[in-house]
Amino acid sequence: MAQTAVADSDTGPSLTELARRHGLTKAGRLPSLPEYTRHLWSYRHFIAAFANAKVSASLGSTKLGVVWQLLTPLINAGVYYVIFGVLINTKQNVDNFIAYLCAGVFVFGFTQTVVQAGSQSITANMALIRALHFPRASLPIAVTLVEVRNMIASMIVLIAIVLLTGEPINAQWLLLIPALLLQSFFNAGLALFVSRLISKVTDIRQLIPYILRIWMYGSAVLYPVTFFSQRLHGWELALVESNPMLIFIELVRHALMENVELAQPAPLLWLQAVVWTVLVTVGGYVYFWRGEKGYGRG
Amino acid sequence: MADSEREPTVIADNAHVVYRIYGSAAAGSQTPLASFKRIITGKKSAAVREVHAVKGVSFVAYKGEAIGLIGTNGSGKSTLLRAIAGLLPVERGGGIFAAGQPSLLGVNAALMNDLSGERNVELGCLAMGMTPAEVKQQTADIIEFSGINERGDFSSLPMKTYSSGMSARLRFSIAAAKKHDVLLIDEALATGDAKFRKRSEQRVRDLRQEAGTVFLVSHSEQSIRDTCERTIWLESGVIRADGATDDVMKEYETYVNK
Ligand SMILES: Nc1ncnc2c1ncn2[C@@H]1O[C@H](COP(=O)(O)OP(=O)(O)OP(=O)(O)O)[C@@H](O)[C@H]1O
Ligand SMILES: [Mg+2]
């Protein structure tokens, strides 16, 4: 047999030694967290281009194109209004139930779509992952960016609804920006978390619709938040009211509407929102980074 | 040994690669309840199957070498290249080491089929780590080299409208636009026509001259003989021969024609 290079497993250690002597890096070595973050940052243009590509690929096959970004939240709000505002009357004593409901539906919808899309972001792009070398966190982050775009469209619809239902514009509206910014980071963390979780334990994908539905019922999306304080007490109430989605929804309602009853005082809500965001964003990112080298395995 | 003066660029030391396939499960084990039970009990999906595709491969590749990789279908060539590129993890106990970041150019290197060739060039270049300025500067050259516009303005049409040779050309052109320390080519030239094959083989030689190492997987004896002076023969995930192209080719041919 012709041999120019060593092909013997006996010489194993010396090959590794040779690699070290020449400063070769191990394929599939996990970079340190700061190194990974720098690498990810240098791929920001790729992330943006990928997000844009996803939008144009999904809208490209429709005739109305971008109009769907506004149409989808409108239809959504309409359906929920007919069911929960008219058929099953859950409005209780909320003054402006349409705006209240839409705020809940849109804010929850933002996180919901990020989780759904994020859960696919690794598994659906396996060919790309196996073909090209880029920081994998680009994929869930790009998915979040796509949904941020859709969220902005639905916020435009929401603001129109809020104005049409007679809420006045005031300085408090500016609070919408930090609230949604926090939620965007929270969502990115969540997308990173679920994408790794599902690439490892594929079965969980089957549960995601149920988890999201339970989460929605626990976030006072379809009925006033006072619904909980009327029925639950003590630690049960505290548990429900520390739900980050409930907090984000409350913050948006608080920012846009005049007379809304909050579950907790606003400063407390902000504090919790910040804590949740930091926790989920950092936790999700670290969790995803630790799996970086295994995503191609599929 | 000659490694005192030659500089190694890729070293594989007893590398094993195992694919794990989930979800070839029987009906009934995919319900939410069954999934939930599995998660609670911490058991992996009942139907995890393993394919041991590369079994303890060791070799050293040096700067300026072009190495052909041959073997029958399913022998693990593509898998080995993916592992060199760091796209597939190598099992514990062994390792693959490389200078810089090896780039893989494969038949399956899926770009986005719904997008135009131009957008794919942009996306592919960014994914290789180019800056937007470099991308802008190179886009025209890449499309020119690929020659997809020879029959009209195809670069602005979605890639799903391309013939397989056209998309292979575009993929190769994108990958060849960048200088690589280690370039891994997996049958990417196979579907190109004779004219493009000649042009791309010239490009491979240029890339090698720029002091890189090139791995070429091909079922075409001619393109291996034309570009590579060293060849590795992989069979069922094990190296059967490693040496001068002529010798290895001869051994391989007697094996195949048996
Ligand atoms: N994604 C995958 N999941 C599971 N097994 C895989 C996967 N890809 C390849 N394999 C298995 O790994 C082995 C080696 O496959 P590989 O694609 O590396 O072969 P190859 O030498 O490139 O073959 P070809 O000449 O047909 O391209 C085969 O047994 C194949 O079934
Ligand atoms: Mg192959």
Helix-strand layout with pairing:
The complex is a heterodimer of chains A (298) and B (258).
Chain A: H1 12-21, E1 25-26, H2 33-42, H3 44-59, H4 67-87, H5 97-120, H6 126-131, H7 138-164, H8 176-200, H9 204-217, H10 226-231, H11 234-241, H12 244-256, H13 266-290
Helix pairs in contact in A: 3-7, 4-5, 4-7, 5-7, 5-8, 5-9, 5-12, 7-8, 8-12, 8-13, 12-13
Chain B: E1 8-21, H1 32-41, E2 49-62, E3 66-70, H2 77-84, E4 95-98, E5 103-106, H3 117-127, H4 132-146, H5 164-176, E6 182-186, H6 194-209, E7 213-217, H7 221-227, E8 230-235, E9 238-244, H8 245-256
Parallel strand pairs in B: 3-7, 3-8, 5-6, 6-7
Antiparallel strand pairs in B: 1-2, 1-4, 8-9
Helix pairs in contact in B: 3-4, 3-5, 4-5, 5-6
Bound molecules: adenosine-5'-triphosphate and magnesium ion.
Magnesium ion is lined by residues 77-78, 186 of chain B.
The total strand number of chain B stands at 9
Low-confidence stretches of chain B: none
Distance between the termini of chain B: 35 Å
Oligomer: heterodimer
- What structural category arises from helix and sheet content of chain A? mainly alpha
Helix content of chain B: 25-40%
Q: Secondary-structure element sequence of chain A?
A: HEHHHHHHHHHHHH
What does the radius of gyration of chain A come to?
A: 23 Å
Helix content of chain A: 55-70%
Portion in beta strands of chain B: 15-25%
Average pLDDT figure of chain A:
86
Strand segment tally of chain A: 1
- Report the major sheet of chain A: none
Radius of gyration of chain B: 20 Å
Family (chain A): Belongs to the ABC-2 integral membrane protein family.
InterPro entries (chain A): ABC2_TM, ABC2_TM_bact-type
Transmembrane segments (chain A): 66-88, 97-119, 139-166, 173-195, 207-225, 268-288
Subcellular location (chain A): Cell inner membrane; Cell membrane
